Amino acid sequence: MLEQLKAVKDKYPDELENLKGSYSQVERVKKIAYLGDMERACRGDENLWGLLNNLITECFEYTRYVLALERCLKNNCDEKIFISLNTEQAEAHNAVIKNTHILLEAMAQKGRDTNWSSGLGSSQNRSTYSWLALALACQKMIIEENIKI
Amino acid sequence: MNKNDKEDLILEYCELVIDSLRSSQNVVDSNKIEQMRLALGLNHNQIINAGFSILLK
């Protein structure tokens, strides 16, 4: 399994040198799910705001494992470590899906705008939730930088 | 710094930023984050952009 994944991940676009001054990924992820729209739809309701923050926490957790796995592959880490990270990532992925649906149901019950979820599909379509998690984490990391770091 | 080392540093930077944002305490060394920015020659948003460019390829 590790060798197959390594083969897939061998080719990276050679674009790092072109990134200075470019925020293209941030613009790209906003098209997947724009955090600003989700925050606007939850604003003014303490429960919804809490559920959105729970989802973002799970997105960070998932993204942390995606980053660790990527580094693991690039650095030829031990296969046992890889399998352990992969299992934990799958659990974090499940938590993203679960928390997305908890938020969606609560928003729908309160008549809030849920258009941000239109591209997600069913819980079985796990890859779209992966994109959602990475998109929200990316936007939150950009936003929070000015506040905390 | 070769391309692989640079990408690894970018991904490690993203990990540290997430650790920092997840923690209510300042457990992440801000000096280390600053040193990584200097080594990469990019600002925070550019590094995050580069990190997600690797993840979202």
Euclidean distance between termini CA atoms of chain B: 22 Å
Overall, the morphology of chain B is globular
Low-confidence stretches of chain B: none
Structural class based on helices, strands and sheet pairing of chain B:
mainly alpha
- Largest beta-sheet characterization of chain A: none
Order of helices and strands of chain B: HHH
Count of folded domains of chain A? 1
3D architecture notes:
The complex is a heterodimer of chains A (149) and B (57). Chain A is built from 6 helices and no strands. With 149 residues, chain A is mostly helical. Chain A has one domain (2-146). In chain A, helix 2 (24-32) crosses helix 6 (126-148), helix 4 crosses helix 6 (126-148) and helix 5 packs across helix 6 (126-148). The longest helix of chain A is centred in the middle third of the chain and has 31 residues, at 79-109. Mean pLDDT of chain A is 82; it is low at 4-21 and 145-149. Chain B has 57 residues and is an all-alpha fold. Chain B contains 3 helices and no strands. Chain B has helices at residues 3-22, 30-40, 44-55. In chain B, helix 1 packs antiparallel against helix 2 and helix 1 crosses helix 3. The longest helix of chain B is centred in the N-terminal third of the chain and has 20 residues, at 3-22. Chain B is globular, with a radius of gyration of 11 Å. The two termini of chain B are 22 Å apart. The mean pLDDT of chain B is 87. The A-B interface holds A 12-16, 19-26, 28-29, 57, 60-61, 63-64, 66-68, 70-71, 74-75, 131, 134, 137-138, 140-142, 144-145, 148-149 and B 3-4, 6-8, 10-12, 14-15, 17-22, 30, 33, 42, 44-46, 48-57.
